[in-house]
Amino acid sequence: MSHRNLAPLATALLFLAASTAEAKQWRYAGMHPRTGQPGDGLCHLESMHVHSAAPLYADTLYRTRDNVYVFIGDPTPFGYEGPRHSYYGHHPVVLNVLVDIQVDVDVVEYCYHDGPHYHAYEPPPRQEFVDKEDVHYYAGEYPEAYQRENPKRVRVNTVYRGWNVPRPVVTFAPPPQYHGPIIQVGVNVDVDVKVGGRPPPPSREVIIIREDDDDDHHHGHGKHKKHKHKHKGWD
Ligand SMILES: [Zn+2]
Ligand SMILES: [Zn+2]
Q1: What distance in angstroms lies between residue 75's CA and the mean position of ligand 1's atoms?
Q2: Which tens digits make up the pLDDT trace of 39-97?
Q3: DSSP string, 156-212
Q4: How far apart are alpha carbons 220 and 217 in whole angstroms?
Q5: What separation in Å is there between the alpha carbon of 15 and the centre of ligand 2?
């Protein structure tokens, strides 16, 4: 058998591999960082669309459903200037609400931003939140899926630490209904940044543990009513 006969096959396989790599696209839904570098800003396309660039920090800044990437993080480092909502600590995010897709069962993911932070979205419906001084706190229980994902997702805080982003100023203790981690994150960041210099990373230390739970009843205003929706899926 001649080796020469295999050459066209090898060439064909190489070509196939190359064109597959070129055709690789990533699907996104909703606003997301254009590249993941703060200076590159945000892509504001709301509906499902594709990019040839893979999401940066995909494991921490995004959640996926059917290979669609949905950005759930704080958009502040990327120059976001729209309406924003203040949150404290870890809380659920409902992906189908975020990208306005109707499904029968909510797709619930969790945000692992420590301490005060911003989102472009308001607290999702059908989840229990309490507000204190215009800051939203999750007042429900954290399920096993939240605990399981924690080691991977909580690294979002390492990603944001280097970006030195402004955060909501919270000067009081979280309400007792909040059961998530209480971590003080770089509130007194030095703003006297010298040109060409890099600001020191915000200090990050664990402080106060929550106040005594002296009232047991929860004041959540989450709606528990189930809504039936026409199934549209993610496509
Ligand atoms: Zn986009
Ligand atoms: Zn959050």
Answers
A1: 14
A2: 999 999 999 999 999 999 999 999 999 999 999 999 999 999 999 999 999 999 999 99
A3: HHHHHHTT--------SPPPTT--S---EE-SS----PPTT--PPPPPEE---PPPP
A4: 9
A5: 44
